[in-house]
Automatic annotation (TrEMBL), chain A:
<feature type="domain" description="Rab3GAP catalytic subunit conserved">
    <location>
        <begin position="655"/>
        <end position="822"/>
    </location>
</feature>
<feature type="region of interest" description="Disordered">
    <location>
        <begin position="514"/>
        <end position="663"/>
    </location>
</feature>
<dbReference type="GO" id="GO:0005096">
    <property type="term" value="F:GTPase activator activity"/>
</dbReference>
<keyword id="KW-0963">Cytoplasm</keyword>
<feature type="compositionally biased region" description="Basic and acidic residues">
    <location>
        <begin position="1"/>
        <end position="12"/>
    </location>
</feature>
<keyword id="KW-0343">GTPase activation</keyword>
<dbReference type="InterPro" id="IPR045700">
    <property type="entry name" value="Rab3GAP1"/>
</dbReference>
<dbReference type="GO" id="GO:0005737">
    <property type="term" value="C:cytoplasm"/>
</dbReference>
<feature type="region of interest" description="Disordered">
    <location>
        <begin position="263"/>
        <end position="284"/>
    </location>
</feature>
TrEMBL record, chain B:
<keyword id="KW-1003">Cell membrane</keyword>
<dbReference type="InterPro" id="IPR027417">
    <property type="entry name" value="P-loop_NTPase"/>
</dbReference>
<keyword id="KW-0813">Transport</keyword>
<dbReference type="GO" id="GO:0005525">
    <property type="term" value="F:GTP binding"/>
</dbReference>
<protein>
    <submittedName>
        <fullName>Uncharacterized protein</fullName>
    </submittedName>
</protein>
<comment type="function">
    <text>Intracellular vesicle trafficking and protein transport.</text>
</comment>
<keyword id="KW-0653">Protein transport</keyword>
<dbReference type="GO" id="GO:0005886">
    <property type="term" value="C:plasma membrane"/>
</dbReference>
<keyword id="KW-0342">GTP-binding</keyword>
Amino acid sequence: METMERIEKMERVPSASGDRFLGSPSASSTSGAVSDGEPEDLQGFDDYTIASSWERFIASVETICREWQAAGPEGLLEKGAISVDGSRNLHRIHQEVSFGKKLYVIVLFFQLGAGDEIEDEWPAGLHHLQLWFGVTDFLVAAPVTLSGVILDAPEATTLLSTVAVALSSCGSHWPAFVPVHDRTRKAYKGVQGTSSSYSITYEADRIGSWVPVRFMHLEGLYELFVSKVAFTAPNTAAVPSLRVEFTMRLTYRAPMIGYDYQSKGGPSSVAEPKPDYDGESPNEPMWDEDLPWASWHSVDDPVKGFELIATWKKMFVNDSHEMSEYENISTFHADEWALVPTFSVDKEPDQPEEGFGVRLEGLANAFSISANAQFVEDFANVVKPEMDLLLETFTVPPPSVLERVLKDLFYAAVIPTGEGFTYEPRGHSIKGAPRDSLFGRFAMHSLFFGTCNIRAISDLWLEFVREIRFCWDECQPLPRVSPEDSPDLRTCLLHQKLQMLAVCIKLKSEERSEKAKHAPLHDSPRVGKASKEATEASRADQSDFQQKHGEVRTSNSDVRHPLDTGTKVHDLYLDGADGPYTDLKSPQDEMESLFHPGSESPNPASKKKGSGPAVENAIVENGYRSAHEEGSSSEDDEKWQSWSEEDEGEADVKEERRGSAGPLENMMLLHSYEPLHAPITQMLPLMTEDMLMEREQAIASLSRSQSEKQARLRLQTDILASDMAAFKAANPRAALEDFVRWHSPRDWLEYDDENGDAEISGSVHTDDSGEIWPPRGRLSQRMSQPGNLWAQIWDQIGPQPACEQKPLFDFQREGEKVMHYLDTVRPQQLLGQMLCTAFVNCLEILKRTRIGDLPRLRSGISGLYSSANIVLEPISTMTKADVPSKEYVEIWNKALHNLCNLFRDVEKDVFVAASLYQKLKLAPLSLVGLFNSYLDDGKSLARVAVGGSSNGGDEREQIAELFPPAETGVDLGTRSRMGNYLNGHEPDVREVKLKCYEEDLRRTLGSRNERRVGGKGMACHRMYISGTANDLQVALTVVSRD
Amino acid sequence: MAGSSGPEFDHILKLLLIGDSGVGKSSLLLRFTSDTFDDLSPTIGVDFKLKLMTLSGRRLKLTIWDTAGQERFRTLTSSYYRGAQGVILVYDVTRRDTFTDLSEVWLKEVELYSTNPDCIKMLVGNKVDKDAERVVSKQEGIAFARQYGCLFLECSAKTRANVQLCFEELVQKIVDTPSLLADTKGFKKNLLRPEEPYNPQAAPGAGNCTC
């Protein structure tokens, strides 16, 4: 408190005060340095030369201060000032200066930009000296030692005096501080000159262990303050009642909210308890166990706890009794509440990073390496030395890991229907695979297979293909792929191939079981029944598939027979075609094999999926469906059997009816007045995207010569020819008109009565309902023109039921083609598809994460989608023919690297948002505010105001739930308590600031001194106290004058 | 597509004609590609025609896929929706069922099978030469087009009225849509686009139009 006086004296009469402590024999060895170069005996010297070491020290400090002063804040930044962590715009610059043998460091802390936070009593992000003493810019002088504090008083005084003199000489009003005593005491001394005659002294100290009960209560703190300020005032006497301005900040802490919190049962902060969770178990549930990424990995909860900061703005108290009342004030009535999350510290660089982002980057790296080889085997079994070099750092996980992955992929009982098995590319056009499908899950597993390197992935892939090969060879249903779907062209080619294979395996196993049973052929009643079942099954709902599947299989196999005349149709058709398409055999032999894949294989295809709906639709069109559906199945059976028997009777005389799917009601053959039977038609060929492209190209290229056009026609007409042959077989006496009425009803025009004169056949029957037969009508103009293609084919094609025809779709061949694709897929194509699939699935996981209504994060995610679309879309549509050059691969790699980084940034934000949402879902406004603050201010300063004017609804009740009622521990009763409870919790920190204006002080104390205090505002004494039961930090600011 | 891109054109566009059987899809296409009219056999499965045209300085190669309207062929034709930039929905102004089927059948097929989310749809009412038999008014067509976000024209393949215009308008619209045009130059150009992924404001592929 006397420092200033001393300093001033020193200035005026250096000798008088200088010797008082500079040359003091009692000075310790450290301060002894001060007298370096001085005569040992100071007696008789009244003057010091300007070159005394202390003066040189002052001069050098002064030079530093002038330099800093002249530079201004912007200039200081250029000189290398750095920002102080965890602050708002506080920067520091330092310079070392020696004094004798000792080295000191002078640090200037300065706030960049206007100090606009004057209004805020308790701003966040303050340096502790700013908080304690209410200063903005300030100097700290400290010795360069391990502790960085001055352990003895004379040295402290010297240093502080030096800085104060230097500052005063350059006319600066920066407050200056020196750290004193033990480091743990956080003790400081400081001075500040002002433009008026007042000067300010600062002092801070701390009690780190046992705090006197008196100081644990507001009352005691008030008395402490009053005694301090009144002591320094003129006409001193301790005054018990003094008007004091007072603000208070309470901090409550709820640590480790995540699973730790759950045991305490905080209602709003916990995830819903799992019913199967064993509460006794020491394994607490992970915070993210019900979040979408949980099946792949677990993330450390980024939010470690919350602090609630309740503040009271300016209040006035007049005596210690009034002050003590504030201990009972309800925390809910505080002027401001701020919720501050405590985030986990950032990971060390050598720790493994969490999340999909880093894994995707691994896969992207594997993708870029994959261009180096033609086959996946090259990466798994290293034989080439240059490949060895490339791969030597890569490790492969042990076989047990591989087994576990394969078990999950192939042996988990999964029904491949539902959301996880449909691919909905919303907001992007990247081709991937559904997340639960075989390939989708394979791609995800590869992310977590070892370190996701190319070598490990290649190993996994080869085993994966081996398992698929087993399914195909042994007729085991392909897991995770529905055999009821045709290839989805929106997905990646690999997934389409697997869809194709699933269908092929289904057809193959149907054929096998049929062979095993050796069902008798041409059993008409059975055929009728079976085909009806087939039709019904095809109409059946997807969900019924499981139940009906077996039935369908057997019934379908009933229909078919092993066919030794397989090529007959083909020949027949070609023979017929010989007329108009004379030279078509030569043009495209390859095309021939491509589009008549079955020519070598005698295996008949079942009709089921493809034809079912079509037949059914035809039925609907003719008004048959209702009747058919209403009739009970047993009735139907009988009826159909009778039809069949009748047919057989006729067949003795005439041609035999074969391959009928049943008669159509109200449809009679025009010439013979027999019921028109819908034929069993062949399953239409399935095509994956690459096949489709080949076919498109073939059709497009066959347009030049006449012969090419004919060949192209034949490509197009195979289905129609097959349908016609089947129709003829099912309706031996049918005419083209009958076929058209069934197949293309709009090309049959019925006459109205008045103008109908076309006679189609001789005899006229009358139906039960009195209908005139035959109906009067004709083929449409385009159907009846000479040279009509339909008529030509009709004339050329002979009757042949679908089961005897050459199959339009050869499952044996197509299945082998898929296996060939899997065996020979280029590594780059494989990795490209894996990367796209994994990326889309990871994106979906982020998107599905429950984060509440956070528009900024949502838009961040959709931004990520569009970036991903640009980078990945070309990769996902890369075809076999596209071999990108090295140069493009470079560009790709760069883009992928950036994309992965972007993904990691967004992913980190999603982790934070998910954690905050989990804890704050009942307080949506606070959630949004907190998350936005996290984005804007960073982890260290993120906070949100709760309640009050800035916030529409008051969510204090919900926020208070985060701080569950304290357990009634034994220690609470015995310990002295501080008051200011929230849910029974004491505040973890209670901070108060007390201020007393000189004017009030004088009025109270009856001062006779009338000198007014200059400067801006009124000078005030100030005390900052932060305290709990075992920690008390006090900082005092006292204004004084001569 | 990628292999065949030569110097004689700037973009390949894939268009698709769909609608009930007998509404005149093949006739429209024949009129457009060879300016003739003929009573054609009903299309079997899928047919294809090629047309080169130049539009506002761009040389375009149109691959136009003509599909059969019969139900039996629908599973076959559905795979040809893949990658089409434009879909022409054709109905017959003298048959109302062909008009109602567009919304009940064909638009759903487009939704289900189109792999190009931005693909342009065009509604075309054919056979306006048979004015006496007309049952679907122009206003109804306009209302339909507005509801489903389509271009709309009435035309006649027989009298050639509006046929040329119909294809030109559709192609113009596709050319004006950067995201559709982006994919039409084949594989290599796409590779260069990753240069600009971190500028979400820039329309993907917008740069391709100027070169």
